[in-house]
Amino acid sequence: MRPIRPTLAAASIAAVLALAATACGPSEDNAGDKPSAPASQSADGKITIPDDLKDRLKEHGIDLDKWKNGEWKNWDKDKWLREAQDFVNPIIEGLWDTDRMRDAEKPPEKPVDNDISGDEGVTDPTPPPVNAQAVKAPYHSNAAEAGKVFFDGPEGSMVCSATVVKDPAHPGKSNLVWTAGHCVHAGKKGGWYRNITFVPAYNDSARPTSKLRKAPKEEVAPYGLWWGDWAQTSEQWISQGAATGGQGAPFDFAVIHVTPEKGGTGKSLEETVGSALPVNFNAPAVPKIDSMTATGYPAAPPFDGQKLFQCSDKPGRLSITANDPTMYRIGCTMTGGSSGGGWVAKGPDGKPALVSNTSIGPVTAGWLAGPRLGEEAKGVYNAVSKKYASQ
Q: Which residues neighbour 142 within 8 Å (Cβ) at sequence distance 6 or greater?
């Protein structure tokens, strides 16, 4: 089994799911760590970096002016920022042009055995595969909250999927995006990924790949590019998450606060796309859920990452280790690149709510598993919301 990791440009990939946990910050329980204020963006798109963050970056030998001019490509161990409070993602305008987005097709890999039952936890029989169905275009009319995440790692440009979610501090005006932890942070042997950008309704009209080469940016990214100015994931993912196996998968979630690449119109992400999903941190147990729907941009063969797909299935349970929360599992043929994509089920009010995200899947690409969101996930979500509550 392997996580549905971001996809790497110009690299061969087995038809497996690859998850990559990426950026994370302190959980609400660790709010006392007092991370620095986030970088702020003016109307003209210029980024202001707080002095305390600049000082910490200097300790790693990082000059932000040089960073934006190409130094971000330096992945030396000492230059790969790891700690939650060291997250930095200055906007490099124009970096993600249409060619670079189209060619970013490699998900971060995290292979796991096909039979990954837990030690003592409850694991239901492996579900039969459910063929992923193409979302009807335009995507904005049928899955307005869905989008694609682009970022850079040591091996090149990678991709994941993500979902616009509601912000309790800014009702109707959210700038929060939910994805997998491995889509922002490499876990125990790495650090934060770079140039993290969210593109809602990527390739909204479902153009074939051959036609994307000549498509204007407005068609590929109709609602613009939104850069992560802060990201937070679980401490468990940072300390346990690995490139192979299921380590850290029950805590493989992240929240990104985004800002428009060019300053925007003053509208939030939620106002721009017209929708955002609530997050249910108290979703029913598996026996009480009739169906879950996973959405994403699978990029490993037989898919190419350019189109949006969904799988709907009654979930089962998957236990990685006895002491960690049991994960949800559904049958689905989506592959790497769909990592981080939202899982939706009916909430207590009967309306759709996000209850999980794609984290891992087998080499055979017949099923997906996602974390069951509880107090740890709620702490991450609330911490990011509170960080920007006064802005």
A: 135, 136
CA distance 45 to 35: 23
pLDDT, tens digit (0-9, with 9 covering 90-100), for 188-198: 999 999 999 99
Which candidate, 352, 311, 303, places its Cα nearest to that of 330? 311
| Cβ atoms 305, 157 nearer than 8 A | no
Residues contacting residue 384 through CB under 8 Å, at least 6 positions apart: 25, 176, 230, 232, 255, 256, 257
3-state secondary structure of 19: strand
Q: Which residues pair with 134 in a beta bridge?
A: 309
301/361 Cα distance (integer angstroms): 14
Answer yes or no: are the C-beta atoms of 341 and 5 closer than 8 Å. Answer: no
* CA–CA gap between residue 342 and residue 357 (Å, rounded): 4
Q: What are the residues facing 151 on neighbouring strands?
A: 158
Amino acid at 228: G
pTM recorded for the entire structure:
0.87
**What is the Cα–Cα distance from 338 to 104, expressed in whole angstroms?**
13
Q: What is the pLDDT of residues 38-85, one digit of tens each?
A: 454 444 445 556 676 677 777 778 888 888 899 999 999 888 999 888
* Amino acid found at 37: A
Give the Å distances, CA to CA, from 361 to 87, 172, 303, 318: 28, 34, 15, 11
